[in-house]
Structure formats: structure tokens, C-alpha cells
């Protein structure tokens, strides 16, 4: 049974077309995966199918949902279907949830306002949702008290509460380790088995393989290749699809080991705690100029905490960190995992970067030289953070950091929002910066293949001693 059919969907910014005609269909029980690099038009396609494009963009084409035929140029016609027939699982689950409402109230409200049951029935349905999604005990928590995995599951419950048979999941697993990624994929497939339709937008090759179904590959707003997911992944026809698959870290050549220069940081007998639980203990190592240390381990094991201890942002429970005495504090920098929270929301990106460059004695030409190396268009500098993709913002965060010319970079999941091709480009730039500028790098990643092919040596942290669903409240406790 075909749940959704779209014909000749296009998106334009004024007179400039940024998504060329795309046609697709979504059948009950068979997932559809839209795969492509950052900026390929994946999310624009989803927004056009939902009627939620930003006001400055316009869409054309036809969308049939059930027995309703809709004009993509008239987004107001889609509103009556939101929640009831079609729902979206957004990229940032924490940002999609109301920070002032407890988790169960948010899902219960979606049941009550969209489907119309009484308050008692809505609460009962919410309780059933939470049991099915393994969220027992999470109902009374606020969003900031939920782990990333729990927030994702609450967002799934809220998206499905209105009874929508079609779910669009936009980059549902970015920033998650392999176990969490597979868990979210299994949850989405379980929802599919209940008779719905699932459209997954991703740049994650492993997620695409696990979801299966059919695949559409997008590049620069155009369809490059289509077919069964397993077939395309095993034997891609188009050169771009082959390049995309080849850019997976599993296919990278190993980086040649680097003999480090002068010591930048030394750690002796380090231990750290969170919420009274010991995360790691007895860590000793030094980092030299030009060397890259990879840090791996499951969520909640203390990878980010280790970096914060190295930077002096969190006190060590035991041991000490000794930076090279001749280096200023600004020589030690952190590349944050979440660039959305790391940029001022109401300032143009170019102004923020210019301020950093001026503060550290760098000219505007330094920004211009770094933009193409990161695959970034100069036009992005005129935009605010909300007007660029997550992958573009993550690369802009790296650009901002490189303006400081640091001697130590703690890179906390720096490629979690990037497609394989852009990820390879960014890691190459980090390696080049490390070697040419004598910068020590501590690289945190959920991807062991990426780390093994990039780092000079690898530190593997063990499982968290408590529930691996680490929450912002746990992190706040560690910072006290």
C-alpha cells in the first residue's frame, strides 16, 4: 500500500533552484532512505514533503498522502495532516522538546491535542508508549535530565502520539555510538512493523545499511542513484556513490605514525568522577607536538570528561595535568561536540569569526584561506547559525578554533554531523594542522575505524560504571 507519493518536488531560494525535481514513493512496511552529503538537499526535501520550509524558500510539485492530493507550493494545506498522517523526528531531539514540560506531559499532550482522547486515556496511552520504548521512570524528567538516547525515544513517542502512519526521521542517529545508533534504527523499524511508513534521511552509511529498504542518493540537490539499499551499497553504479562509500573510515589508509616534538601536556595518575561514580582512574600519558591521541569507548565512559580535565574545565578526582609552562592558556582549545550550542544564535557567523581573528591577531585572509579547505562557501558567513546545516556549522566551529592557532586541540566528536566525504576532508585538515603547526590533538570518536586510521596511539576507556544513559544533570554534577 502506497502511503505517500511525491512528484517533481523542487525547492528554490528566489530564482535559484537548490533542489531539482525529485519524485519518490513510500510504501507501508518498506523503509526509504535518502542518503547524501551535507548540503545535498536531504532536509530540504523532507521539509517540502511536510510543508515546513523556511519562509524565504519556496517549493513546487505534488504530494499525495493517502487520498489527499497536495500542492507543495501551498504549505498551509499540509498543516491539517501534521501529527495525524505525517510526523517528523527532528535532528536535535533536545531542541524539539519543551524544556519546561516533563517528558510524559509532552507525549500526553500530543495524544490529547492531535487525536482527541480525554486526559485519562491520553495518560494511559503515554504510559504504554513509555513501556514499549523502554522509558519507564523517565516520564517525570525534564528534557535536560534525559540522555541523548532517552530524548530521542521521547521524541519518537511524541512524533507517533497523533497516530501518524508516516514518520520522517531526519539524521536520527548523529552523535550516537554504534550501539545507540543500532538501537534507534531498531526502534524505527519496530514502528515500521506496526504498519507505518518510514523515510530516513542520513549521511550515515551504517544506518542506511541497517534500515535497508530502498535508497535514493542525493548530491547538490539532484538524484544521483536509486535502487534497493543492499544492492546500491554492494555495487554502486555512479562514481559519486562509489566515492561516498569509499570515504567510509573502514576504507581509509592508515596514517603514517608521527614522531612528536616537544611535550605539550603531561597527565599523571588521572582519575575523574561524575555524580559520585568513578569514571576512570590511573591514566598517565604525555602529548607531544604533532601527535594525535585517539580516545574511544562507549557513551558515558568519561571521554568528554577526560578532555575537560585536560583543559582544566573540570577538576581531577586524583592525579595532575601539567601543561608546557611556556604556552598561554589560549593555546589549549576545545572543539565542541555540539556546534549549535557553541555559536551566538543572533549574530552573523562572519562577524563571530572576524571577532575571533582580530582578538588573536589574524587577518581576514586567514578566514578566506580556511573556507575552501573545509569545503565551505563564503556566502555562509552572512548567515546566522540557524540558517546553515549542522555539518556546515561543525566545520565553521573548526575554522574558528584554527584562527587561534592552538598547540593543543581536544576534538570532541568533531565529525559526528558530517557525511563520509566531508568527514574525511575535516580529519585530513586536523591531521595536517597537527603536523604543520606542531599541534597536539586528542581526538574523541565513537568510530573505532576512524580513530585507528588517524591516531598515533589510542586510549580505550571502559564501560561507564553506572547507566550509560548519561544525562546533562550528571554532567552538571561533575562541574560543581
From TrEMBL:
<keyword id="KW-0472">Membrane</keyword>
<dbReference type="GO" id="GO:0005886">
    <property type="term" value="C:plasma membrane"/>
</dbReference>
<dbReference type="Pfam" id="PF00005">
    <property type="entry name" value="ABC_tran"/>
</dbReference>
<feature type="domain" description="ABC transporter">
    <location>
        <begin position="4"/>
        <end position="245"/>
    </location>
</feature>
<keyword id="KW-0547">Nucleotide-binding</keyword>
<dbReference type="GO" id="GO:0016887">
    <property type="term" value="F:ATP hydrolysis activity"/>
</dbReference>
<dbReference type="InterPro" id="IPR050388">
    <property type="entry name" value="ABC_Ni/Peptide_Import"/>
</dbReference>
<dbReference type="GO" id="GO:0005524">
    <property type="term" value="F:ATP binding"/>
</dbReference>
<comment type="similarity">
    <text>Belongs to the ABC transporter superfamily.</text>
</comment>
<dbReference type="InterPro" id="IPR003593">
    <property type="entry name" value="AAA+_ATPase"/>
</dbReference>
<keyword id="KW-1003">Cell membrane</keyword>
<protein>
    <submittedName>
        <fullName>ABC transporter ATP-binding protein</fullName>
    </submittedName>
</protein>
<dbReference type="InterPro" id="IPR025662">
    <property type="entry name" value="Sigma_54_int_dom_ATP-bd_1"/>
</dbReference>
<keyword id="KW-0067">ATP-binding</keyword>
<dbReference type="InterPro" id="IPR003439">
    <property type="entry name" value="ABC_transporter-like_ATP-bd"/>
</dbReference>
<dbReference type="InterPro" id="IPR027417">
    <property type="entry name" value="P-loop_NTPase"/>
</dbReference>
<keyword id="KW-0813">Transport</keyword>
<dbReference type="InterPro" id="IPR017871">
    <property type="entry name" value="ABC_transporter-like_CS"/>
</dbReference>
<feature type="domain" description="ABC transporter">
    <location>
        <begin position="265"/>
        <end position="479"/>
    </location>
</feature>
Amino acid at each position: 500500500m502506497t502511503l505517500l507519493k511525491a512528484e517533481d518536488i523542487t525547492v528554490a531560494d528566489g530564482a535559484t533552484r537548490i533542489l531539482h525535481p525529485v519524485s519518490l514513493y513510500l510504501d507501508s512496511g518498506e523503509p526509504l532512505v535518502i542518503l547524501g552529503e551535507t548540503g545535498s538537499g536531504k532536509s530540504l526535501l523532507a521539509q517540502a514533503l511536510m510543508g515546513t520550509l523556511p519562509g524565504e524558500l519556496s517549493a513546487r510539485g505534488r504530494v499525495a498522502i493517502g487520498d489527499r492530493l497536495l500542492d507543495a507550493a501551498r504549505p498551509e494545506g499540509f498543516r491539517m495532516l501534521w501529527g495525524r498522517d505525517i510526523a517528523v523526528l527532528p535532528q536535535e531531539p533536545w531542541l524539539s522538546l519543551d524544556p519546561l514540560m516533563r517528558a510524559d506531559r509532552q507525549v500526553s499532550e500530543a495524544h490529547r491535542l492531535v487525536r482527541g482522547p480525554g486526559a485519562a486515556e491520553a495518560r494511559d496511552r503515554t504510559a504504554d508508549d513509555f513501556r514499549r520504548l523502554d522509558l519507564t521512570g523517565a516520564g517525570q524528567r525534564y528534557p535536560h535530565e534525559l540522555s541523548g538516547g532517552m530524548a530521542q525515544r521521547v521524541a519518537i513517542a511524541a512524533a507517533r502520539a497523533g497516530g501518524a502512519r508516516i514518520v520522517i526521521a531526519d539524521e536520527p542517529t548523529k552523535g550516537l555510538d554504534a550501539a545507540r545508533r543500532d538501537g534507534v534504527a531498531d526502534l524505527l523499524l519496530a514502528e515500521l512493523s506496526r504498519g507505518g511508513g518510514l523515510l530516513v534521511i542520513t549521511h550515515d552509511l551504517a544506518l542506511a545499511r541497517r534500515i535497508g529498504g530502498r535508497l535514493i542518493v542525493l548530491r547538490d540537490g539532484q538524484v544521483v542513484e536509486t535502487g534497493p539499499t543492499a544492492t546500491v551499497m554492494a555495487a554502486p553504479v555512479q562514481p559519486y556513490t562509489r566515492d561516498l562509500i569509499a570515504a567510509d573510515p573502514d576504507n581509509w589508509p592508515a596514517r603514517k605514525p608521527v614522531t612528536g616534538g616537544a611535550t605539550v601536556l603531561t597527565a599523571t595518575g588521572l582519575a575523574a568522577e561524575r555524580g559520585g561514580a568513578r569514571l576512570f582512574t590511573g591514566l598517565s600519558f604525555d602529548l607531544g607536538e604533532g601527535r594525535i591521541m585517539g580516545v574511544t569507548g562507549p557513551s558515558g565512559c568519561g571521554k568528554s570528561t577526560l578532555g575537560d580535565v585536560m583543559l582544566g574545565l573540570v577538576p581531577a578526582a586524583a592525579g595532575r595535568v601539567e601543561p608546557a609552562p611556556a604556552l598561554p592558556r589560549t593555546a589549549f582549545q576545545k572543539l565542541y561536540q555540539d556546534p549549535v550550542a557553541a555559536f551566538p544564535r543572533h549574530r552573523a557567523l562572519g562577524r563571530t569569526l572576524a571577532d575571533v581573528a582580530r582578538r588573536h591577531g589574524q587577518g581576514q585572509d586567514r578566514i578566506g584561506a580556511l573556507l575552501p579547505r573545509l569545503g565551505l562557501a563564503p556566502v555562509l558567513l552572512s548567515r546566522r547559525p540557524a540558517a546553515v546545516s549542522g555539518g556546515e556549522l561543525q566545520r565553521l566551529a573548526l575554522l574558528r578554533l584554527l584562527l587561534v592557532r592552538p598547540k593543543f586541540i581536544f576534538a570532541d566528536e568533531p565529525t559526528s554531523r558530517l557525511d563520509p566525504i566531508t568527514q574525511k576532508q575535516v580529519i585530513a585538515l586536523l591531521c595536517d594542522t597537527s603536523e604543520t603547526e606542531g599541534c597536539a590533538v586528542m581526538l574523541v570518536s565513537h568510530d573505532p575505524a576512524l580513530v585507528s586510521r588517524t591516531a598515533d596511539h589510542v586510549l580505550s576507556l571502559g564501560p561507564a560504571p553506572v547507566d550509560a544513559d548519561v544525562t546533562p544533570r550528571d554532567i552538571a554534577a561533575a562541574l560543581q
